[in-house]
Design a protein that fits this description.
Elements lengths: L3 H19 L1 H7 L4 H28 L2 H18 L6 H29 L6 H28 L6 H17 L13 H6 L3 H31 L4 H28 L3 H18 L6 H29 L5 H29 L4 H19 L8
Length: about 375
């Protein structure tokens, strides 16, 4: 029960964001924005993050994490309340940047706060539940948006109206989170922390994850709506299966990595499975093969998305988790920005599936590099 508010907040944050973020490219398309323009606007979302993430991470070590979480939720409320009323691309770019700032501030601060209050030993279980709650939020948010848009024919702007009350509830939940002690120490300590091989591995993993998330954000929903002509029921089923699979395998990863040795083996297995299925996505043309391939892909993602916060908690001192986690998320956002931009370029010249092929190859190459250097990673 100690972490219930964290689980609720993580669920609500990802639920609301998955409505707005995963369907944002579809909304922009409905506003007659071209392929390259969509890729550019989504890149703005991810490029603003490297500018602010490290700053937010530093702040979460030095000021109240709880207040930062609340501020992030408040910014997301403003975004959802104003985005449906904008029509010009420059104003849309500003709003997309605002959304990136709100999500980043919330996610960084609540993750750092959770890692600071989690127990030193046996932390795999609470971390895996925290990540699993976010995965369930992803499933419910995407499924709800799919039904509203595809099944009940609401205008696509409904994604912002539906996300707004969730962000308001999240603001209330955040006000009741416990807080962590603040610390003061020289900035140079962060750079000394980064001079470790596991930190380099962590950066490579999170960059690869960012690349493939940028691709999913650009292409996934549009493949289902424009190429496969999936119904609202099919899309809802897809996201529920994906979210449930992610939650189960994240929890399984937490259990295995708490009880058994072989951290690197689980991590590389997850990355290979994720990258391989990402690669195969390019050749799926109908709903059922698409669902099968993406579900297997998600099994791999479950191991990887658990391993990242676990590596962060192992690699850095508790009092400097904020700045170092911020650095890690900065690398992730750069990867996501490049993934979105690359997806726009490849989709305009080939098709919406080609970006999956490119980022799948990159993920498998990353997994191979991690395996070859596995002796530098923790055994458990």
């Amino acid at each position: 029960m100690r972490y219930t508010r964290f689980y609720l907040y993580g669920f609500g944050l990802v639920c609301a964001n998955s409505m707005a973020a995963m369907f944002l490219s579809l909304y922009l398309k409905s506003q007659t924005v071209g392929e390259s323009g969509i890729g550019g606007l989504l890149s703005v979302y991810h490029l603003v993050m490297p500018v602010v993430i490290f700053i937010f991470g530093l702040l979460s070590d030095r000021v109240s994490c709880r207040r930062l979480v609340m501020l992030g939720s408040f910014i997301s409320i403003i975004f959802c309340a104003t985005m449906p009323h904008l029509r010009s691309i420059p104003f849309m770019a500003l709003e997309v940047a605002l959304d990136g700032i709100g999500l980043t501030l919330s996610l960084i601060s609540v993750s750092v706060l959770f890692l600071k209050v989690a127990p030193e030993s046996g932390r795999g279980a609470p971390i895996s539940i925290f990540v699993a709650a976010q995965n369930v939020g992803y499933a419910i948010g995407c499924a709800t948006a799919s039904l509203l848009i595809r099944q009940f024919s609401f205008p696509i702007s409904i994604i912002f109206h539906a996300a707004l009350p969730i962000h308001i509830l999240n603001f209330i939940v955040a006000s009741g989170l416990p807080d962590a002690p603040v610390s003061t120490f020289p900035i140079i300590k962060y750079f000394q922390d980064m001079n470790k091989f596991p930190v380099f591995c962590l950066a490579l993993i999170t960059f690869s994850l960012g690349m493939h998330w940028g691709t999913e954000k650009f292409s996934l929903v549009r493949i289902m709506t424009t190429q496969m002509k999936s119904s609202g029921i099919e899309m809802a089923l897809f996201f529920i299966v994906i979210g449930a699979t992610m939650a189960v395998f994240t929890r399984l990863a937490g259990h295995l990595m708490d009880k058994r040795r072989g951290f690197a083996a689980y991590l590389v297995f997850g990355m290979m499975l994720s990258g391989g299925m990402h690669f195969l996505t390019n050749w799926t043309r109908t709903f059922m093969p698409f669902l099968i391939v993406r579900t297997i892909h998600t099994c791999g993602d479950g191991f990887v998305t658990f391993a990242v916060p676990m590596l962060v908690s192992l690699a850095f001192a508790s009092e400097r988790l904020g700045g170092n986690y911020g650095f890690n998320r900065t690398i992730n956002s750069i990867g996501a920005a490049l993934g979105s931009a690359l997806s726009g370029f490849l989709a305009a010249r080939y098709n919406l599936g080609t970006p999956f092929l490119a980022t799948g190859i990159f993920a498998m190459a990353t997994a191979a590099a991690i395996w070859l250097t596995r002796r530098h990673l923790p055994a458990n």
